[in-house]
Design goal:
With about 500 residues, the chain is of the alpha/beta class. It contains 22 helices and 16 strands.
Length: about 500
C-alpha cells in the first residue's frame, strides 16, 4: 500500500504533517505494510490535507483528512472522493506545467523520469541553440511573472549577445497577494524547473544559473536545495549534462523579504549583494544583467513550462489558448472563495466561469462584488466585466492586467475605497525609494484618499492626476501599476467613495 500525503506548505498549514505522523503511528501499530510518500499538492486547497491511497488498483482520494479520521481511513470506513482525476475541479483542467505536481515524489529522480521528466532536455541536447530558441518562440510562451513578454525573443537576444559568460536567473520572488503557483511547483515538482533552466542555458550559451527564492518560502527553499543536489548527483547538472559534454550548474539564493525584488533589475542588484533598488533601462538585463553579463531572467512558471514544450513540441503547446495568449494559464483562485486553489487551463476562460462555476462563489455565501486579478497591483474587476476572457490583451482592453494570474475574490461587504487606500499604502511601504513618483506619489496618494474618506470630493481629481503621474513617471511596475487598483476602484465602485462623503456630511 502506498499512501500519499502532501508536503506542500498550504497542506501543512492545514495539518498534513500531523496526519502523516498519525498514519505512520497507526500503520506501524497495525502491522500494515505501507509506504508513505510526501507528494506535492494537487492544488485543491479546500480539500487539504488530501490523502491518496494506492492499493495497486489506482489512487483513491480522501479529504480533508484530520488526525481523528486516520483509524476510519485505514479501516476503509472513511468516505472516498474517488479518483482525484474524476473530481470535477481537477477533471476540467488542462495540466501541462503541473502535470506531475501531486502525482510524484518531488525528490525522486526516477519517479520524475517515469512521468515524462528529462524527455524535453534529451531532445534539446540534440538541437542547436538557434533551434531551441525557435522552438520556444513558436510555442508562443510568454513571461508568466506578469509582463507577458515573449520568452523566445528574450532568449534570442541573450543567445546573440557576445560575452565570455552568460547567466540564467529564475525569479522565484513570488510576493503577490493570492499567488502560490511558483511555490507549488518548487515544492511539488522541482526538477521541472531545473530542467527548464538547463534547456535555457543550452539555448543561450549560459553555464550558470541562480534561483532567487523568497525567504518566506522555507519549505520551497529546502526542497529546491535538495533537488539541486540530486540533479548534480544524477548528471542533470554539472560539467557533463546527461553525458552530452555540455555544462550547466545552478544554485539557490534566498532574498530578504523586499517585494520590489520581484522586479528583475532590483532582483539582480540583490543577487549581486547590493541594495535591492530598481535599475534604469536601458541597458536591458538581456545585454547587461547579472554582474554586467547577458542574462535571461524568467519567472518560475515560464521556465517550468519549457520541458513540456520540448517533450510534446511547440505546436502542441501553441494549440491551446486564445489570441496572442498561447498555452495554459496557471490560475490561482483565492480570497473569499468557496473552492480556492490552482487551476491550470488554456487561456480564454472567463472570470465568471472561474469564480462562480469552478470556485463555487464566495465562502461567505454573499454576492461577489469584485475580483482583483494580477496581485496587489492588479485592477479590481467588477461583476459586469466577468465575461472577459483571460488573456493578456483581452484583460488589458478591459483596463486590467493578468500579471501572475492570481485572482482574489471579494464579496459585497468589501469597501473599495479602503482597498484603494491599501494599494497606495502597500506601494509606499514597499517602494525602493529610487524614483520620486513612486516614493513620494504613493505617500501623497494615501493622504489624498484619506481626504476623500473625510468627505473632500475635490480631492478626487487630484487623485486621478496623481495616478497619471505615477503611471507615466515611475521607473518600474510597482509605482507604475499601483494606479490600476486605485483607479479601477474609483471607476467601477464610485458609490463606495460617495458614501464616505455622505457620512462626513
Amino acid at each position: 500500500m502506498k499512501i500519499y500525503i502532501p508536503l506542500d506548505s498550504a497542506a501543512k498549514a492545514l495539518g498534513a504533517d500531523d496526519v502523516a505522523a498519525a498514519i505512520r503511528t497507526e500503520t506501524a501499530a497495525r502491522g500494515i505494510d505501507a509506504t508513505i510518500i510526501r507528494n506535492g499538492t494537487r492544488g485543491m486547497i479546500w480539500l487539504e490535507p488530501l490523502v491518496e491511497i494506492d492499493t495497486g488498483e489506482g489512487r483513491r482520494a480522501f479529504g480533508p483528512v484530520t488526525v481523528d479520521d486516520v483509524p476510519a481511513l485505514l479501516d476503509g470506513k472513511l468516505d472516498s472522493l474517488g479518483k482525484v482525476e474524476d473530481i470535477p475541479f481537477f477533471a476540467r483542467q488542462t495540466r501541462l506545467t503541473f502535470a506531475r505536481c501531486g502525482v510524484i515524489d518531488p525528490l525522486d529522480v526516477a519517479d520524475y523520469e517515469a512521468h515524462g521528466g528529462l524527455a524535453g532536455l534529451r531532445r534539446a541536447i540534440a538541437m542547436t541553440p538557434g533551434d531551441i530558441v525557435t522552438e520556444v518562440t513558436d510555442s508562443g510562451l510568454r513571461g508568466r511573472g506578469g509582463a507577458g513578454f515573449p520568452t523566445g525573443i528574450k532568449w534570442k537576444t541573450v543567445m546573440e549577445a557576445e560575452a565570455t559568460q552568460k547567466y540564467i536567473v529564475c525569479n522565484a520572488d513570488e510576493g503577490d497577494s493570492g499567488t502560490f503557483a511558483d511555490r507549488m511547483i518548487m515544492e511539488g515538482d522541482p526538477f521541472t524547473l531545473i530542467e527548464g533552466m538547463v534547456i535555457a542555458g543550452l539555448a543561450v550559451g549560459a553555464t550558470k544559473g541562480y534561483v532567487y527564492l523568497r525567504s518566506e518560502y522555507p519549505d520551497a527553499i529546502n526542497v529546491m536545495n535538495a533537488a539541486v543536489a540530486l540533479a548534480q548527483k544524477n548528471g542533470i547538472l554539472g560539467a557533463d549534462i546527461l553525458g552530452s559534454g555540455r555544462a550547466f550548474d545552478m544554485e539557490i539564493r534566498v532574498g530578504a523579504g523586499a517585494y520590489v525584488c520581484g522586479e528583475e533589475t532590483s532582483l539582480l542588484n540583490s543577487l549581486e549583494g547590493k541594495r535591492g533598488v530598481v535599475r534604469a533601462k536601458p541597458p536591458l538585463p538581456a545585454l547587461e544583467g547579472f554582474l554586467g553579463k547577458p542574462t535571461v531572467v524568467n519567472n518560475v512558471i515560464s521556465l517550468a513550462t519549457v520541458p513540456v514544450i520540448f517533450e510534446r513540441g511547440a505546436q502542441h503547446y501553441a494549440d491551446f489558448g486564445t489570441g496572442r495568449s498561447r498555452g495554459t494559464a496557471t490560475l490561482q483562485i483565492a480570497g473569499n472563495i468557496a473552492r480556492g486553489g490552482l487551476f491550470e487551463t488554456a487561456f480564454g476562460i472567463t472570470l465568471d466561469e472561474i469564480i462562480n462555476d469552478l470556485g463555487g462563489g464566495t465562502a461567505s455565501g454573499r454576492p461577489v462584488k469584485a475580483a482583483q486579478v494580477g496581485g496587489p497591483l492588479g485592477a479590481y474587476i467588477p461583476v459586469s466585466n466577468f465575461d472577459a476572457p483571460l488573456g493578456y490583451e483581452e484583460l488589458d482592453a478591459r483596463g486590467g492586467l493578468l500579471g501572475h494570474a492570481g485572482i482574489v475574490v471579494f464579496d459585497d461587504t468589501a469597501d473599495m475605497l479602503r482597498m484603494a487606500r491599501f494599494a497606495m499604502e502597500f506601494c509606499a511601504v514597499e517602494s525602493c525609494g529610487k524614483c520620486t513618483p513612486c516614493r513620494i506619489g504613493s505617500v501623497r496618494g494615501v493622504e489624498t484618499i484619506d481626504r476623500i474618506a473625510r468627505g473632500d470630493a475635490a480631492a478626487i481629481p487630484l487623485l486621478t492626476d496623481l495616478c497619471e503621474t505615477m503611471t507615466e513617471g515611475s521607473l518600474c511596475a510597482l509605482g507604475g501599476f499601483t494606479p490600476y487598483p486605485v483607479m479601477s476602484a474609483l471607476t467601477h465602485f464610485p458609490d463606495d467613495f460617495a458614501r464616505q462623503q455622505e457620512a462626513a456630511e
